[in-house]
Every structure is written in structure tokens, then in C-alpha cells.
Amino acid sequence: MNMSFGKMLKLLYEFIRGNPNRKPKRPLPVVPLSKDKLFAKTATGEEQASVTWFGHSAVLLRIDGMTLFLDPMLGRAPSPFPIFGNARYSRKLPIEIEELPELDAVIFSHDHYDHLDYGTIRKLRGKVKRFFVPLGVAAHLERWGIDPAKISEHDWWEEIEYEGLKLATAPARHFSGRNVVGRNGTLWCSWIIQGKNENVFFSGDSGYGPHFKEIGERYGPFDLTLIECGQYDERWAAIHMMPEETVQANADVRGKAMVPIHWGAFTLAMHDWFDPPKRASEAARERGVTITVPRIGETVAFPAADYPASDWWK
């Protein structure tokens, strides 16, 4: 992103002045999890597809009896120096990493610090059967001790069959990089995850664009969409959607129900911390879109006649 000198000065002034609502006044509550609570079941004991949000873009997905973790950033702060500032709002996780069950796959959208975390990978690596990443991201994982044979790299529009699931990479409008130099040296993407009966879209990070309609035409409709809705600003709308655009993106990909992600864990923009769910919920209601904003650690089954409708963030 390139900004004029005037815009940079204004942004610097806003950061210095601060916003008292950029962070919650107290740690956000979490729903405690245990292995037996991670999976949703019907009244007759049959397992349902489900998602459990861990804050920001980290989502545990259960589909066709398989456990997938999407962008599992479970660290303290999205920074190369996590001991300094910008701590996680909830202060703790719903379940400790060591207590998680074996993971059939971990899927990453790109390599930014708020999505790909060294400490998390080091703790998860013994639990993961397979890693799926966009082009170039494998080098990070290999450097951190992951067996290259467990990593699968992919370009946009590639389709992968994995243990009965169909995975596909798709475009996103964003960028990549973990250093001051070397920006865009790796790819960023969104993901489609199709089971026998359920179809899920995971946006990763993206500005709004025509790629969402193309994804919907190729792979929709989706039973559930997990779409970014936070850390936005009009000055960088090209790489992060505004909440109203998040609702439009869900319509473009033909989502039947949506969960807004990329918020609720860290402060990476100037807006109020609760603005993402507030604005997205208002836009969804106006358009008759089914939206659910689960609490951190709350397991949500899908498809469902009724989704959690609590405005807990208020």
C-alpha cells in the first residue's frame, strides 16, 4: 500500500492520539473447551459439521469426521516480538494447544504474523497430519521444523483431493511478507472446503473485488462462509473489506450463512474493537442475510435452522 505524505502524517497523528475503544476495557470472555465439547452432535448422537472460533481468523472446522484448523494463530501477539504490546483480547485460549486433538490438516491463507505464528506451529507440529499453504509459505514451515513431506503448496484455482474432502485455493486481494523487505514473495489465497454434504468458504484476508462472484460461480453455494470483517480503514480498503462489503462478499459467493472473522483478538486498525460485528450485523439484517457471531470458543453446528444470535460483544 502506498499513501501520500499527507495521509501518512494524518495516520501517524491518529495513532498517537489513540482511540479509547480500540481495545476492550477488560479481557474478553471465552467459552471453555474440552476434547469432548469440540464436536457438535444431533439429539440422536450423530455428529454434525461445526466450526469453533478462537478469535481473529483462527477457526477449528469439523467436517466429514475430520478436524481442520484454519489460520491457527494462537499466540500472544501478532508480532515478531510478541512480548511487546498488542496482547490478545481474551488473554487465554478456549483450550490449550497441548489439549487439542490430532488435526487432520492445518490450512493457511498467507504468511502475515496475525495468521502464521511461529510459536503456534512449534506447539502444533506433532499433532498435524498435513499442512496446506499457498505458494512460497512452505519455506517458513520447513525452517521451523515441519517435515516437507507433510506440506502441500498451491497456486490459485488448484483443486486437491484429501481423505475424501475436496479442497480448492481461490484468489484474494491482499499481500504477503513478514519483513520490511521481501513483500509479496509468497502467495495469499482463500480456500474452499467441500465435504460429502457441506461446503465451506474461508476468505483469508482480502479487499472486496470481483473475485468473490467468480468463486461463487465456480464453487457456490456455500453452507457457511468465514469472511474477514475487521482491521479495516477506508485508506486501505483495497486489502481489507469494510463490514458492509463483507456482507456483499457473502452474497457474491452465494453463502447461506456467514461468520465474520479477523476481529476480536488484536488491534491492527483505528476502528472501535466492536465495530466489525456491529456493522456487519446491521448490514446483514438490512439485506436479510443469515449471520452468526459466536463467542470465542463456542462451537456452532451447520447447516442449522437457527444459529446463535447473541450480541455478546455489546
Characterization of this structure:
Pfam families: Lactamase_B_2. Counteracts the endogenous Pycsar antiviral defense system. Phosphodiesterase that enables metal-dependent hydrolysis of host cyclic nucleotide Pycsar defense signals such as cCMP and cUMP. It catalyses: 3',5'-cyclic CMP + H2O = CMP + H(+); 3',5'-cyclic UMP + H2O = UMP + H(+). It comes from Cohnella suwonensis. InterPro entries: Metallo-B-lactamas, NAPE-PLD, RibonucZ/Hydroxyglut_hydro. It is a single chain. The protein starts with a helix and ends in a 13-residue tail after the last strand. It is built from 6 helices and 13 strands. It has 314 residues and is of the alpha/beta class. The longest helix has 13 residues. Helix 4 runs parallel beside helix 5 and helix 5 packs across helix 6. The protein has a single domain, classed as Ribonuclease Z/Hydroxyacylglutathione hydrolase-like (Metallo-beta-lactamase, Chain A, 4-Layer Sandwich), CATH 3.60.15.10. Strand 9 and strand 10 form a beta hairpin. The radius of gyration is 18 Å and the shape is globular. The strands form 2 sheets. It has a 7-stranded mixed beta sheet with strand order 6-5-4-3-2-1-13, with no helix packed on it. A 6-stranded mixed beta sheet has the order 7-8-9-10-11-12.
Write the layout of secondary structure elements.
Blueprint: H1 5-17, E1 50-53, E2 59-63, E3 66-70, E4 105-107, H2 118-124, E5 131-134, H3 138-143, E6 151-154, E7 159-162, E8 165-170, E9 190-194, E10 199-202, H4 211-219, E11 224-228, H5 243-253, E12 258-261, H6 275-287, E13 299-301
Parallel strand pairs: 3-4, 4-5, 5-6, 10-11, 11-12
Antiparallel strand pairs: 1-2, 1-13, 2-3, 7-8, 8-9, 9-10
